[in-house]
Amino acid sequence: MSSKRTALLTTPAYPFVEAAHYLRIPVTTLRAWCLGQRGFRPVIRLDGKRSEGLSFMNMIEAHVLSAIRREHRIPLPKVREAVRYVSKRLDMDRPLAQAQFATQGVDLFVEVLDRILNVSKGGQVEIADLIRVHLQRIDRDAQGVPVRLYPFTRKQADKEAIKSVVMDPRIAFGRPVLVGTAVPTSILADRFKAGDSVTDLAKDYGAQSEAIEEAIRCEFDRQAA
């Protein structure tokens, strides 16, 4: 991977509050994952200074972790232990962001959680399925490097949810845009707030009304974060 591309993926670009909003998780949870908590080391290693927030790669890692945060409030030390085990077992520097996690790491991750938390059989399946749903929202290049993230626009992670919003570090400084365009969701939200209807916005940007609605929701629905 070229140095320019590496910089694009690893340069801090998302303040914690903004990142937590787009990932639909509490900012306190995101800070704990990235900065540690009460003497426990962090799960995600930030690519920059703590005051600079998250890089795109950090966003990918937090997105994957958010799968277990939505339904299973697993303690930070246990999450870190499971990630560390997968990293060592599969010899991965950043397992949550690497393509092999989808094929090899998920089951190992759940296996560790089962061992240290005694997760029920049904719970194991649920956690694994939820993680895989999140992994399906990530586009990768031929080398398996994450290049696009389709964040959920609702609190509940639904495998049938449309991919109406995308975050691509090459477009709009990595801010969410309407899929198929370079139009930031913030602009759509501003126009909607100013009085433009969903129908008008759909016509202007050649998109389905449902996609416009979800793009607006991406900006307006802050309760989940």
Tell me what the structure shows.
The protein has about 220 residues and is mostly helical. It has a domain at about 150-225: Winged helix-like DNA-binding domain superfamily/Winged helix DNA-binding domain (Arc Repressor Mutant, subunit A, Orthogonal Bundle), CATH 1.10.10. It is about 50% helix and about 5% strand. The protein has ten helices and four strands. The chain has a two-stranded antiparallel ribbon. Helix 2 (about 15-25) packs across helix 3 (about 25-35) and helix 4 (about 55-70) runs antiparallel to helix 7 (about 120-135).
Descriptive tags:
single chain, globular, mainly alpha, 225 residues, Arc Repressor Mutant, subunit A, 52% helix, 10 helices, two-stranded antiparallel sheet
Mean pLDDT: 91
H and E string: HHHHHHHEEEEHHH
Q: What is the highest CATH level, the class of the domain at 150-225? A: Mainly Alpha
Helix/strand/pairing category: mainly alpha
CATH-level-2 architecture of the domain at 150-225 = Orthogonal Bundle
Largest sheet: 2 strands, antiparallel
Dominant shape: globular
Q: Rounded to an integer, what's the Rg over CA atoms?
A: 18 Å
Continuous helix count = 10
Low-confidence stretches: none
CATH superfamily of the domain at 150-225: Winged helix-like DNA-binding domain superfamily/Winged helix DNA-binding domain
Q: Report the end-to-end length measured between terminal Cα atoms.
A: 33 Å
Q: Looking at CATH, which topology of the domain at 150-225 would you report?
A: Arc Repressor Mutant, subunit A
Strand line-up across the major sheet: 1-2
Fraction of residues in helices? 40-55%
Strand content range: under 5%
Number-wise, the strands total 4
